[in-house]
Design goal:
The structure holds two protein chains of two kinds. By secondary structure, chain A is an alpha/beta fold. Chain A has seven helices and five strands, in the order βααβαββαααβα. Chain A has a single domain, classed as HybD-like (Rossmann fold, 3-Layer(aba) Sandwich). Chain B is α+β, with helices and mostly antiparallel strands. In chain B, α5 packs across α6. The longest helix of chain B has 31 residues. The chains are: A alpha/beta, B alpha+beta.
């Protein structure tokens, strides 16, 4: 099973970088798992998310989220929950993850079969400038552990043991 | 007409508001309020080494980073009296082809077409016309692949530098794109045919069109600044004819001519001023379309973009077939203090840069005039021209018509410094 791990976020917009940092931390802590999947990073994937998912059978997206919940909370959203997200394509250049997945599923049957889940880290500040808020920084380890559990679960279910990685940390 | 408020105008980039004041059945005020915070890129550049400039300015926009790279590079090369080889110039054109392809495919099908087809969004368009949207995404992807092959990544590519490129891209990587580009050329020609039958609103404006013109190629990177009123100036003379000023309600500067007039940059201006320089297939598409030039309807910018798509697919194919790099990919720079102006045609229109550097190549002054800032006063003027029609329309239709007009310019408020909410207020 071809599996993508995608860290998403803008490194210059505060807590939005959490998705990138979680995947970097997980790569460092779990190199064996990381070698068996494809790892990518994207600051603003937009419609290119569809290209990244092309040919994949499973994907775990890791991204900062805005939610009425305690900052630093780490949440897992399965495929059904992701499909229920309300699209909000308010910007020409910034297609969000939810609407892009919905567009892809409606256009490409193969993409609809890709098992996509999201690990979301609730962020508190998304203003200009690099650097996570302390509470989000503290949450990285939890999120990386959740990611490792999900990857192991996928690898176990698919009995993947071949090396497969072309991603490098950015 | 009662107050209309749209929380955010969709399918434009950035944040701002549109206000239309109506009194006694007459539109008395129209404002495009750009309230997104200014981005201070020109300030960031001061104190930086000149080779940092292309990759910093590229970050101004995720859709047209090549435009920012090319305008800054040509300005800095002017300051240093650098001449690049024909091979470097051809590769720059190819990189720009990639940008035009991905930007125009996005705007035609995903941003403006939903308006013309009565759909709220591209998602809704995909539901009723999945093959149209799939083809659009495939066309866009090819443009991004060209950028990736030259610049290492499909968005914000690197590799372009003052003096040329850091390295030649692999010929095999570029030539591998030819089959998809050939498919794209066919899809672009079909896009022109499709675009001719869309239901464009009636609106004819006597614009002053302004674009880069070159007698031997479709004006993109080099040439003079021509206007449809007959003026022909060099990049160095740009600020003597076209200036920007601060508007209190807006975080974007507004561009106008020195005598206070508005002008239009972008695909309509390019097509009207440069159609003789289109590649043969694009010429044929234009001829077959039986269009009466100059095109003066802003909504029909879509047709101009479609014809340009044909041109840039065709040019990309030609350039890749001829690609056979030899010699250094960039020239060595001899630093000296100086000043240079540069310009290129971003997909949205003319993009002008000017820099002053010291003897160590450190930027002492930077000025960037993006296309959307130049078009903002023109968009307001066009909304005034539409006003008599708008006040007669039901609220919802008026809102959609005004939004569509703004979207037809493909405004990039991120570049200009951002954009849109619509409020139509009936003043007592």
């Amino acid at each position: 099973m071809k599996t993508l791990i995608l860290g998403i976020g803008q490194s210059m917009r505060g807590d939005d970088a959490a998705g990138l940092e979680v995947v970097r931390l997980w790569q460092t802590q779990h190199p064996v798992s990381a070698a068996q999947v494809q790892v990518e990073f994207s600051e603003l994937p937009g419609l290119d998310l569809l290209n990244l998912l092309e040919g994949m059978e499973a994907a775990i997206l890791v991204d900062a989220i805005q939610l009425h919940a305690t900052v630093g909370t780490v949440l897992r959203f399965g495929p059904d929950e992701l499909a229920s997200f309300t699209p909000d394509a308010g910007s020409a250049h910034g297609w969000g993850v939810a609407e892009t997945l919905q567009l892809g599923s409606s256009l490409y049957p193969s993409l609809a079969k890709c098992r996509v889940m999201l690990i979301g880290i609730v962020g508190g500040q998304f203003g200009m400038g690099a650097g996570l808020s302390p509470v989000v920084h503290e949450a990285l380890a939890n999120a990386a552990e959740m990611l490792e559990n999900e990857v192991r679960s996928l690898l176990k279910s698919c009995k993947i043991n071949r090396p497969y990685s072309r991603g490098t940390p950015i | 007409m009662n107050t209309i408020e749209v929380p955010a105008l969709a399918r434009v980039e950035g944040e701002g508001g549109l206000y239309i004041g109506v009194k006694d059945g007459q539109v008395i005020e129209i404002r495009l309020d750009i309230y997104e915070p200014p981005r201070f890129f020109e300030g960031f550049l001061v104190g930086r080494y000149l080779q940092e400039v292309p990759d910093i300015t590229a970050r101004i926009c995720g859709i047209c980073p090549v435009a920012y790279q090319m305008s800054s590079i040509t300005a800095l090369e002017k300051a240093l009296d650098v001449e690049v080889s024909p091979q470097v110039y051809a590769l720059r054109r190819l990189m720009y082809c990639g940008e035009y392809i991905e930007s125009h495919a996005l705007h035609i099908y995903l941003l403006q077409a939903p308006d013309l087809l009565g759909q709220p969004s591209a998602l809704d368009l995909a539901a009723i016309a999945p093959e149209v949207v799939k083809n659009a995404l495939r066309m866009k992807k090819i443009g991004n692949e060209v950028l990736k092959a030259i610049g290492g990544r499909s968005v914000h590519p690197v590799n372009a530098c003052v003096g040329g490129f850091y390295r030649w891209p692999e010929a095999v990587s570029l030539k591998a794109l030819l089959p998809e580009l050939e498919w794209g050329l066919g899809a672009a020609k079909e896009t022109v045919r499709w675009s001719l039958n869309l239901p464009y609103p009636e609106l004819e404006i006597d614009y002053k069109f302004v674009a880069i013109h070159h007698p031997e190629e479709y004006g993109v990177i080099k040439g003079e600044v021509w206007s449809s009123k007959g003026s022909k100036i060099s990049a160095a003379e740009f600020e003597m004819s076209y200036i920007e000023e601060h508007v209190q309600r807006s975080n974007a500067l507004h561009g106008h001519t020195v005598d206070g007039g508005t002008y239009l940059v972008g695909p309509l201006a390019r097509l009207n001023l440069n159609n003789a320089q289109l590649f043969p297939e694009a010429q044929k598409a234009l001829k077959d379309a039986s269009l009466k030039l100059p095109l003066k309807n802003p909504y029909k910018s879509l047709i101009a973009r479609a014809i340009e798509l044909v041109h840039f697919y065709e040019e990309a194919i030609t350039l890749i077939k001829a690609y056979n790099p030899s010699g250094p990919a960039h020239v060595g720079l001899k630093l000296k203090a100086g000043e240079g102006c540069g310009m290129s045609e971003a997909p949205r229109g003319l993009l002008y840069h000017r820099y002053k550097i010291d003897e160590n190549g450190i930027v002492k002054f930077a000025k960037i005039t993006p296309p959307t800032a130049q078009n903002l006063p023109r968009i307001e003027a066009d909304l005034y021209a539409m006003a008599p029609q708008l006040v007669e329309m039901p609220q919802e239709q008026a809102t959609l018509t005004a939004e569509h007009l703004v979207r037809s310019y493909d405004p990039c408020i991120s570049c200009a410094t951002h954009f849109l909410k619509l409020k139509i207020e009936n003043r007592k």
